[in-house]
Amino acid sequence: MQNPNFIDDIPSESSLSVLVVDDSRLQRKLVSTHLKKWGFTLHEAASGQEALDILDQHPIDMILSDWVMPEMSGPEFCQEFRKLPRENYGYFILLTSKSEKGDIAEGLEKGADDFLSKPVNAAELRARIKAGERILSMQQELHLEYAKTTAALAEVNRVNAEMTKDLIQAEKLQHSLLPAAEIITETYRLSNIFKSSGHVGGDLLGTFALTEDRIAVYSLDVSGHGVSSALLTVQLNGQFSPHDRANNIAFKSDLKGDYTIREPHEIAAAFNHHLLAHSDTELYFTLAYADINLKTGHTKMVQAGHPFPVIFNHNTGVRRLGEGGPPIGLIPDVPFETFSFDLNHDDKLLLYSDGLTECQNTAGDLLDDEGLETILLNHQNSSGPELLADIVWDLTEFAEGDDFGDDLSAILFEFSG
């Protein structure tokens, strides 16, 4: 005949540590006998307080506790158990002869996971423990996954911290490429402002001497944002080297080693050819480049997809220049055009990126060219860094904050010749 308690003969591969709590030594013995046969690590306690002392010394995975005990009942002990600091979840089974719904609700409210009727049946005990093992196993898996996620997050935070550190250094490098915030000579005053939408951006502006009487002023904007755009701006900055004509795209040498100055449209065409022939990136850029004669004010300019340059002063108002032109780095052999105009005494020439005119307010409206014209007319008596600061102030009011959504740069040339 088969043993009705045959389940007793099947050992468990579990390494769970189980605590049996009952003020009856006989009841503890009955339950513990089964648990020992199943291979669990076993602890016994005659009261809730004794059980708490054991919990303070040993890592217990599962508790089987009698309901009715002197001094501290099973539900009260369960409540105290739930207050203990633990790394892993502890599964709690109440042994009880109670069956009223109110009693069951009380046990659940105190933190019990399951109930087992007394007298204890071996098969039912084994089934309840198996259920607890599954819960603990899932909890352990979650704990391990959480630990892995926490470790991965810590690594991500570390990498982000390193990247932020590198980006801050890159931001400092990018700012070092810019000209001084203000340059004043007998014939002109040059000011600029640069605000990146992140640590680094794709805007670049600058100036360099072409001859003693001619100066180049430019503004360019690389498509996209972030590191890739900033890297291209650094490369382009090297093409406008102010100290080395051999590495400055504005100059070309003949067979004798003499240098001549390229026309603005030739510079745009050379950039276009170089970017398409030697770069695998899909980035492109826009450019406004001015060749200014400091004696006469005669200026030659190319506009390659860049926002319209403007001339303004307090007498003549605001005038937009150029006809747009194609960006650089999109179409091979596309033609660019040089156009000319004359700067008069007190004229201001403003080159800027589209972060200015394409700035949006909270309603989604763009500042646009008309909005910029209004700002310039409102501050037509300002000049230099003060004027650029006024522009940024009005732009902040328009956008209702200083997050303009894009890099913002502008360079202001004021002619006093």
List the topology elements.
Elements: E1 17-21, H1 25-37, E2 41-45, H2 48-57, E3 62-66, H3 74-83, E4 91-96, H4 101-110, E5 114-117, H5 122-176, E6 182-184, E7 188-195, E8 203-209, E9 214-222, H6 226-239, E10 251-253, E11 259-261, H7 264-278, E12 285-293, E13 298-304, E14 310-313, E15 317-320, E16 338-342, E17 348-352, H8 354-357, H9 368-378, H10 384-399, E18 408-415
Parallel strand pairs: 1-2, 1-3, 3-4, 4-5
Antiparallel strand pairs: 6-7, 7-18, 8-9, 9-12, 10-11, 12-13, 13-16, 14-15, 14-17, 17-18
Helix pairs in contact: 3-4
Describe the structure.
This protein has 417 residues and is α+β, with helices and mostly antiparallel strands. The chain has two domains: 6-145, 3-Layer(aba) Sandwich (Rossmann fold), CATH 3.40.50.2300; 177-415, Phosphatase 2c, domain 1 (4-Layer Sandwich). The protein has helices spanning 25-37, 48-57, 74-83, 101-110, 122-176, 226-239, 264-278, 354-357, 368-378, 384-399; strands at 17-21, 41-45, 62-66, 91-96, 114-117, 182-184, 188-195, 203-209, 214-222, 251-253, 259-261, 285-293, 298-304, 310-313, 317-320, 338-342, 348-352, 408-415. The strands form four sheets. The protein has a six-stranded antiparallel beta sheet. The longest helix has 55 residues, at 122-176. The chain starts with 16 loop residues before the first strand and ends with a strand. Residues 1-11 have low confidence and may be disordered.
